[in-house]
Design brief:
About 90% of the residues lie in helices and about 0% in strands. Helix 3 runs antiparallel to helix 5. Keywords: Coiled coil.
């Protein structure tokens, strides 16, 4: 295969001359590099779609946590009101017991009712304690979700800035043909490596950079 390509190159050198063949060879090299750059941009676009899905899912989860926390607070308020009512009833029963010490039967009935109410109060208090623990857990989950969202936003913004820097470097080569031939492979490799790094390390994608397609269009066709 290599011998065939070498023979073709020799034939072209004989037919067109070294300068013409050299120019065609450089054009092919540039076309291959531009193709690889296009593939890198497609990877960035796919990564960005994944990022939008993750951010949307996180927003839905945070909304659900806030909704659950509101329900817990409402239930907790109702249970506290019931506890207050039961405690008031217990106080009234104690007063009745004190006033009816001479009536043993009345005392026994009131005592049984008092014990029953106290058991209900204990049960309700246990429920209230469990709900308060659940409320604390929901508060922690909400704080964690917000911190995670903020961290993701900061990491995505930093990644966007770095990729935009690479694109601007490629754009700056458009009016410098020799410099573009000598150095275009470096930012192209950096963009590909950075796409792979973001996908593997962060597990989410970059947001679209404003003007990224304009940069690529100018770079390729001007």
């Amino acid at each position: 295969m290599a011998e065939t390509e070498l023979q073709l190159l020799k034939n072209e050198l004989q037919e067109k001359g070294p300068q013409s063949v050299g120019a065609e060879f450089m054009n092919k090299q540039q076309e291959n590099q531009i193709l690889k750059l296009k593939e890198a941009v497609v990877k960035l676009r796919d990564i960005n779609a994944t990022d939008r899905m993750k951010m949307s899912e996180m927003a839905r989860e945070l909304e659900q946590v806030e909704h659950d926390l509101s329900d817990v607070r409402r239930i907790n308020s109702k249970l506290n009101q019931q506890v207050d009512q039961y405690e008031l009833q217990i106080g009234e029963l104690h007063e009745q017991i004190d006033a009816a010490l001479g009536a043993e039967e009345m005392v026994e009935k009131l005592t049984e009712k008092n014990l029953s109410l106290e058991e209900k109060v204990r049960e309700l208090q246990e429920v209230v304690d469990d709900l308060e623990k659940l409320q604390d857990l929901n508060d922690e989950l909400q704080d964690t979700a917000r911190e995670t969202e903020q961290d993701l936003r900061e990491e995505v913004e930093a990644a966007n800035a770095k990729v935009e820097k690479y694109i601007k470097r490629l754009y700056s080569y458009s009016d410098q043909p020799k410099k573009k031939r000598d150095h275009i492979h470096l930012p192209m490799i950096e963009v590909n490596c950075y796409c792979t790094h973001v996908t593997r390390q962060l597990g989410f994608a970059l947001r679209p950079i404003r003007g990224i397609y304009i940069y690529i269009y100018i770079y390729i066709y001007i």
